[in-house]
Amino acid sequence: MQRIICILIGYACGLIQTGYIVARLKGIDIKQHGSKNAGTTNVLRTMGLKYGLIVFVGDVLKCGLAILITHLLFHNSYPEMLPLLKLYAAAGTILGHNYPFYLNFKGGKGIAATAGLCFFALGPIMSFLGLATFFGIFFLTHYVSLGSILVYAGIIIESLILSKNGYWGEAIATTYFAEYNLVIVFLALMAWWKHKENIKNLLRGTERKTYLRGKPEIDVDGKEQGKHG
């Protein structure tokens, strides 16, 4: 029952579609532009770096919120399995982000929310390794998708090693070892599924590159200036 509660908490937090909300506040339906994805990368490409960063931070924090609520609910009653419950809350957040019911189950791809999982639940080692992997690959290739795909490959390997060595406590290393890592594998498979078109494009050599200082498709601030003279 605790697991289901945590997933539901996470899903509710994941329904805060930061990209969709931020774009709507600027009069844009992000689902009609670019890749038609409600995540950070499409907002970055469509609206520019400033709005991409706002969406990234929002998606990270909504995962953190789910993990915080889980901690407050269960840290006294289930301290040994708390890392597992936080993982379920993060998984629920990513599910809600990727498949929001009110957007016809078409949201983002869950990578910014996964950053929230790393920052608020998996700890500093995996946060550092995840950031190093993603940005190392991104700055070498400018493929956001390749960085995202390989980050999850790293997370699986790192989780197996760290959990077995008691990084999240003895209970995760023994009683919940298989379950904990199965949830990680599930999240990786979901991320790879969401990136299936990107994987095809990478193999064909047609994947779109992203540049942080690239010109946005919509000059949002320019439109604002025009409105106000």
Blueprint of the fold:
Elements: H1 2-14, H2 18-25, H3 40-47, H4 49-74, H5 82-98, H6 111-122, H7 124-141, H8 144-164, H9 170-173, H10 177-194, H11 196-204, H12 220-228
Task: Provide a short characterization of the protein structure.
This protein has 229 residues and is mostly helical. 71% of the residues lie in helices and 0% in strands. The termini are far apart.
What does this structure look like?
The protein is mainly α. The protein has one domain (2-213). It has 12 helices and no strands. Helix 3 runs antiparallel to helix 4. The longest helix has 26 residues, at 49-74. It is globular and about 50 Å long. The termini are far apart. Residues 223-229 have low confidence and may be disordered.
Task: Let me know the largest β-sheet.
Answer: none
Approximate shape: globular
In terms of DSSP E residues, the strand content is under 5%
- Count of β-strands: 0
Give, in order, the helices and strands. HHHHHHHHHHHH
| Number of helical elements | 12
The Cα radius of gyration reads: 18 Å
Structural class: mainly alpha
Q: Approximately how much helix is present in the residues?
A: over 70%
Could you list the spans in which at least 5 consecutive residues all have pLDDT below 50? Answer: 223-229
Intertermini distance:
57 Å
